[in-house]
Write a structure and sequence with these properties.
The chain is mainly alpha-helical. About 70% of the residues lie in helices and about 0% in strands. It has a domain of about 120 residues. Bound molecules: calcium ion (2 copies).
Length: about 180
Amino acid sequence: MRVMSRIELDENAKLQVEAFLDATREEDPGLARSLGALDEKGQLELAGVLGRFDGRGLAPAQQRLMARRFLGRLRKPTGHGLVIANRVLDYLDRDGDARLNDHEASVGLELLDIFARVESDNHSLSERELELLEGAVRFFDRDSNRVLDEGELQRLRAAIKDGTLFSTVGKSTATKA
Ligand SMILES: [Ca+2]
Ligand SMILES: [Ca+2]
């Protein structure tokens, strides 16, 4: 089997991003504009997000819709924001297949919606809110296997519900720093 070079991988990622942006210009012009402004590194991160919805037997239009449900929640997505988003998505990929199944995706959307309201009462995440989300999933990954399993998710949900999340996560990031 031939191994793809880094350059070929990058070329594939670019084609994937171009196809996504072309379709998104019609389907969600505002999102297409902010994603279209990403530099090359940001586009590779975008390809990383798009790849989570590949190869699940979904039609391309459905894949784009799923990807946009995530990307549309990021306020003015930047390359840095997409790096954090990819790190968070890694924690949600419980079966480790680098794809998000319906359950994994719905947990992701649930968390994005909660963290979108942390610092500003709206439906989109600032970079700061994304960073808080990343801190939370890292903190609640108690066995440090870089996956948020069901028990860990339940503890995270409980901490959100009883309002202790930010004192807990705040403390942990303060001690780590
Ligand atoms: Ca998965
Ligand atoms: Ca874990």
